[in-house]
Structures are given as C-alpha cells and as structure tokens.
Amino acid sequence: HILVVGSLNMDLVVQTPRHPQPGETLLGGPFATVPGGKGANQAVAAARLGAPIVMIGCTGDDRFGEELRQGLAADQIGINHIAVTSEAATGIALIAVDATGQNSIIVAPGANALLQPEDLQATEALFRTAAVLLVQLETPVATVTEALSLARRYRVPTLLNPAPAQPLGREILGMVDYLIPNEHEVGLLSGGEDRPAEAARQLRAQGVGSVIVTLGSAGALVVDQAGATAIAPFRVEAVDTTAAGDAFAGAFAVALYEGLSPREAAIWGAAAGAITVTRAGAQPALPRRAEVEALVAA
Ligand code: ADP
Predict the structure, then answer these.
(1) Which of 30, 91, 157, 177 is the most exposed place for a label (fewest CB within 10 A)?
(2) From atom 13 of ligand 1, which residue's Cα is the shortest distance away?
C-alpha cells in the first residue's frame, strides 16, 4: 500500500463580492462544506488512480470528522488508523472566494495538531509493509520526522510535499527521496533562491534525493542526478486551482508505486493537476484513473 500520514480538514467555503476589511461584515453568496486537508486530498488523489491507500491522521469526535472519514472510506481508503480525539475539534479551513476567484484562507488545525510521533510508533507495521510513504506539513514537524524515519528503517521510498511552506533542516531533508514543492516552497526551503532549478539543486546538496517542482500553468521540473528536465503542462481552462498540488503529489506517488520513472510519474502528476484545476473544490475535483490516462495518452 501507499501510506499517507497527514491532515484532514473540512473546507468551509463562502463566495464573497470582495474580501472584508478588519471589523467589517459583508453579505456573501452561497456557502458549502467541502472535504479537504492536504493529507486527505493526496490520499484521495492516489486512491482514485486505483492504488491501495492507508491513511494515518487525527480528527475530532464530531460531525465533520465523521463525514471526512466516511468520505475517505467511500474512496476505498483504509481509515482504521485515523485517530478520533475528544481533545480538539476536527481541522477546518475558512475559505473566502471573491468575484475574481482570489482566495483568502484561515486554517484551524484542531485535531491535526494532536497527531504525535507516538501515534506512529503504535502503527509501525503499516510502515514495515508500505511500498511508498507520502507526507506533507499540515501535521506537527516532529510527527513528519518520525514518519520519515520509520519509513527509512524499512527502506520505504519517501515523498514529502513541503506545504504549507516552512524551513526544514538537514535532519528531515536527508530522509526525503522525492521532495515535491511548488515554486514558492522550493524558494523558501532553499533560503531565498528564486530560480527553481538552482533552488532544487541546493536542496539535493542538503540530502534530498530528487526534487520535483510544480510550476502551476507552466508544468513541472524534475531535478535529480541526471540534471533538470522540464515537464510540459497540459493545456486546460482553469476555474479553481484548489488541490492542484495535492492531485500532482497523489498521482506521482501512484506512478512510482507502479514502477514508473520519476519523469513518467511527473507527467501523471501534471495530468492529474491539470484536470483538478478545471473543477471547483478540493476532493470533489480530483480525477479518476480513466481521465488521467486519457489526458496522458492524448
Ligand atoms: P500548488 O497547488 O501546490 O501551488 P501548482 O499550482 O504548481 O501546485 O499545481 C500543481 C500542478 O498542477 C502543476 O505542476 C501543473 O502540472 C498542474 N497545473 C496547475 N495549474 C495548472 C493550469 N492552469 N494549467 C495546467 N496545469 C496546471
């Protein structure tokens, strides 16, 4: 299986004519609750491409948590190791979308912040039997570090999508086989280098195996021991870029799981990302295998 350790959030999305000033109240448009969270999104992206997925995470003992776990189960994801805590509410993201499509987002991590390294030690067998580990940064860094070191212990290839961006030390970078940042994240991780290929090379010098930089509508860049290879974007009409990076990471993980090369995997990632931006929301927008195969073959 592919093991995903990460966040589950309910996205609370409201349309607004513009973003409010501090102290101001605006009348918005329609409201929707949409399953999200980078960990859960990537698990769903991978599951819809047909790979067996197990997720480790933490929700509150509340209706959002129940809905999120049932949604993952409906996508055939193993949810038995998603903890349910009474100490915090399920994570949420408050998302306002203005008339131009610009988002402003506040994330309340809630139960995601309670996923501890010890929780992973209790599930060590899942690491021993995993084919690929996929992690992000919406759970505590100590937990991400523990996940990477458990994977290392059992020689499981590791993928880190370093989002939301934060500086990481060599201790973590040295345990990452495939780092999948976007343009902003790779710049921040490298300490301010604004050329993605150069930033990626610096991260490899700090111990990362391969770096796959996602470049939005410009596609992606694979930087490994063979040098830098550009992955062309698929041309689509973008309506909502939410979860494009999650679709990329999930599809990349499945392609590696199936034995494809990192370059081929990045093409799958780019196709999944491109389809995702043509639809609204996070998990509802993630494509199924037939759609990705059709686009890759086109
Ligand atoms: P993030 O959502 O993490 O910022 P990106 O915006 O880089 O990630 O998107 C991830 C991937 O999705 C890109 O590498 C690209 O392949 C695909 N993608 C994103 N936006 C578009 C777009 N407008 N047209 C085509 N492909 C896109």
Answers:
(1) 30
(2) 216
Residue with tokens 């799981």: 257
**Tens digits of residue pLDDT in 108-159:** 999 999 999 999 988 999 999 999 999 999 999 999 999 999 999 999 999 9
Active site residue 246: yes
7-36 pLDDT, tens digit each? 999 999 999 999 999 999 999 999 999 999
Q: Which of 242, 277, 296 to mutate to test the pocket of ligand 1 (most atoms within 8 A of CB)?
A: 277
Domain that holds residue 172: 2-7+37-77+113-297
Question: In terms of C-beta density within 10 A (0-12 exposed, 13-18 middle, 19 or more buried), how is residue 155 classed?
Answer: exposed
In a domain, 99, yes or no: no
Q: Please, what is the angle between helix 38-47 and helix 63-74, to 10°?
A: 20
Q: Based on the structure, what is the number of domains in the chain?
A: 1
Asked if residue 26 belongs to a domain, the reply is no
Predicted complex ipTM:
0.99
